[in-house]
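Support request, please re-run this one:
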Amino acid sequence: VSQVTIAKKDSKLVFTKTGDKWAGTKNDAPIERFDGEKVKDLLRSMKALTADDFGDGKTAAETGLDQPESTVTIQLKDGGAKFVLKVGKVATGTNRYVQREGDTTTFVIAAWPSDFAAGDLAKFQTAVDAGAPAPKKDGGK
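Re-run finished. Output below.
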């Protein structure tokens, strides 16, 4: 994998691999406290992706796939294949409806990959209490 993009209505996360290191941006600005290991976790969750259930009989509006909450694009290196996953509404708990681009089957995926696919920025950052410096409240003065 050379790049992962998570596009939402109001933001775009892009993770790019150079050599063996990941860099991350949100709306073209570097991500504060970015943790490249979290991208590896995302990729592990996608590699082992299985359906917990199916959205059989549900409309695109019911699943949220008519206007996905996020879209995950995984680009393989050297111009290889590209995989696109549309992420819809929550099905149960934090499990979500998803659909692979080009496939009409609606799947429900488990919480772990679902949490990454939803594109929450905090999922890709080192927690402040994990040794990362606390944000400056007064602009650093």
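The two ends are 41 Å apart (CA to CA). The beta strands are 3-8, 12-18, 21-26, 29-30, 51-54, 70-75, 82-92, 95-100, 107-109.
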